[in-house]
Design a protein that fits this description.
Length: about 180
């Protein structure tokens, strides 16, 4: 069975009060978010290992708590998929099969280079999480609430990244935009 069909069938059971077709829709939404956050956790750890420069320690130590929090979000997403009657897929092939997947292009580099790239990654992640919140809407309030909480944390992590790049006036410096 391919990755794209592993989690798209209507579940044989789901949580009480939720229709199986709605659960199926939520499973697909959650699987896409699970893939994206698995990727984000890997990217953050990659940057943690490969960042250099005068702000190395600040960035290096900032990233580990983000990795841990994102991994916890992945676990929550996977467990919600299972609770809805789906089968969460946490393999690298699931991640790479996602249509919008792009490999992080930077290896060893200065903090500013990595932070500018992370700004782009976080923008994409937060926008997609907000779209998933809209998709969950009133159809599944529990999934909706979980995604809102995760979006809040992701937005805070994005702010931490941006704080290193912003000017005093709150705009990105020209070298990072």
């Amino acid at each position: 069975m391919t990755t794209s069909t592993r989690h798209t069938s209507v579940p044989g059971y789901t949580v009480p009060g939720l229709k199986p077709d709605t659960a199926s829709e939520m499973i697909v939404v959650l699987q896409v978010r699970l893939n994206a956050l698995n990727d984000l956790a890997l990217i953050l750890k990659h940057v943690h290992w490969n960042v250099v420069g005068p702000h190395f320690m600040a960035v290096h130590t900032m990233l580990d708590p983000q990795v841990d929090a994102v991994r916890a979000m992945v676990d929550d997403l996977a467990e919600r998929i299972a609770a809805l009657g789906g089968s969460p897929v946490g393999t690298s092939s699931a991640l790479m099969a996602q249509p919008d997947w792009t490999d992080y292009p930077i290896d060893r580099a200065h903090t500013g280079v990595h932070l500018a790239a992370l700004d782009v990654v976080f923008t994409r992640i937060v926008e997609a999480h907000r779209a998933a919140i809209d998709q969950a809407g009133n159809a599944d309030p529990v999934t909706h609430d979980m995604l809102i909480g995760q979006a809040g944390a992701l937005e805070q992590f994005h702010w931490f990244i941006r704080a290193h790049l912003d000017s005093d006036a709150g705009s990105l410096s020209p070298t990072t935009s």
